[in-house]
Design goal:
The chain is α/β, with parallel strands linked by helices. It has eight helices and eight strands. The strands form two sheets. A six-stranded mixed β-sheet has the order 1-2-8-7-3-4. Strands 5-6 form a two-stranded antiparallel ribbon. Helix 4 crosses helix 6. The longest helix is centred in the middle third of the chain and has 18 residues. The protein is globular and about 55 Å long.
Length: about 220
């Protein structure tokens, strides 16, 4: 049974009492409330999802990467604010479960691995945490064969799109997908180069990516 986003009165009461001792500001608007106040929570729920193509495969993103969604993801990933994982993970997890339910039987879930530096810095995997909050168990990762171009790293601005693609091809490898259908997941899709590399890796290993799912997509 997937978790629902309903507010339970007892939970509100407990949080209200806890708030007396542990004052928290809403990460969305700064109001003195829990990590996400009811207004910002409603804002999040009201924002539409996004659909785009990556390497010829449909990508479903739970949100566009902007405003409140961008703020919450950065708080989670850069400052370890795991208390925002639930509101983000509920919709992300629902999309992943939907993709799996609509895929052929035996379809497997694979995730794009986090960059080595990001994983070291954080000590937790945001996608795994978000999926857990959304009722999806930990998926197997694609294997990082070598480091790709670092987002925001030195020289990144000067790289052309083509150079970025060339530097990313061959960085990932898929295991155990031969003859299988695959749903690929990641947290944020920007240029789509990394997700496309995931699709390539699955195909090279004899699999077929039937859907990509992300928490957020940067619109070009
Ligand atoms: Zn707020």
């Amino acid at each position: 049974m997937p978790p629902a986003d309903h507010q339970t009165p007892w939970r509100d009461a407990v949080l209200a009492v806890l708030g007396l001792f542990l004052p928290v500001a809403c990460l969305g608007c700064g109001a003195a409330d829990r990590a996400l106040c009811p207004t910002c929570r409603a804002d999040l729920v009201g924002r539409p999802g996004r659909v785009r193509l990556v390497a010829g495969v449909r990508l479903d993103a739970a949100w566009e990467y902007e405003g409140l969604v961008r703020t919450l993801l950065l708080e989670l990933k850069l400052r370890g604010r795991v208390d925002v994982a639930r509101p983000l993970g509920l919709r992300f997890g629902a999309l992943v479960r939907q993709a799996l339910a609509g895929a052929p039987p035996g379809t497997v879930l694979r995730r794009i691995p986090p960059s080595r530096s990001g994983a070291r810095r954080r000590g937790f995997d945001p996608v795994v945490l978000l999926l857990a909050r959304g009722g999806v168990r930990r998926p197997q990762r694609l294997v990082r064969v070598r480091a790709g171009p670092t987002a925001g790293g030195p020289g990144q601005k000067e790289r052309t799109a083509l150079e970025r693609v060339a530097a990313t091809v061959g960085t990932l490898r898929a295991v155990g997908v031969d003859g299988r259908d695959v749903v690929l997941v990641d947290d944020v899709v920007t240029t789509g180069v990394t997700m496309a590399e995931g699709v390539r890796a699955v195909r090279a290993a004899g699999g077929r990516v039937v859907r990509c799912v992300a928490v957020a997509s940067v619109e070009e």
